[in-house]
Amino acid sequence: MTVRRLTEDDWQTLRAVRLRALLDAPESFYQTYGESVALTEADWRARLQAAGKVTLLAESAGNPAGMVLGVPAGPDERDPDAALMLSMWVDPNFRGTGVADELTAELLVWSREQGYKRLLLWVYDAAPRAAAFYRRAGFESTGRVDTFYDATRPLTLMSQTLERV
């Protein structure tokens, strides 16, 4: 298993993996498959060019096994000293094999490199397996629950303090 940071030239890989993720777990993402499939090459490249952001891809024997994004926390998180984990997805064939652990570990490395004090994430209350993984990975609930785009789908904000290495 390897984890690498995608570059602008990896736009086709990002597109393919993201579309697979949206078909596999549409309830886990804000953007829909229909919205994503309509994006142009320039849109995908722009996602990978954005300053201060990272897209990580886990691969096993050259096959995409999962991905996660890291971005600066925004106004919704109200924490300028934090990075935000977005769009964690592991291919069903690789679930339970440590892919999420590897992606999380590399995102923690990136977050420290960027000088962040915390790594945050939002997890759907309807996704107890994901929340259990994040707790095992060292995240704690902040006690904050919110609904952004769908009032019927509450999200809990979780946080991990980043130790300086």
Automatic annotation (TrEMBL):
An example Gene Ontology molecular-function term: acyltransferase activity, transferring groups other than amino-acyl groups
InterPro entries, A to Z: Acyl_CoA_acyltransferase, Bact_Acetyltransf, GNAT_dom
Domain called N-acetyltransferase: residue spans: 1-163
PROSITE patterns referenced in this protein's UniProt entry, alphabetically: GNAT (PS51186)
UniProt keywords, alphabetically: Acyltransferase, Ribonucleoprotein, Ribosomal protein, Transferase
Domain of life: Bacteria
Signal sequence extent: none
Protein known as: GNAT family N-acetyltransferase
SUPFAM superfamilies: Acyl-CoA N-acyltransferases (Nat)
One GO cellular component term noted in the UniProt record for this chain: ribosome
Pfam families membership: Acetyltransf_1
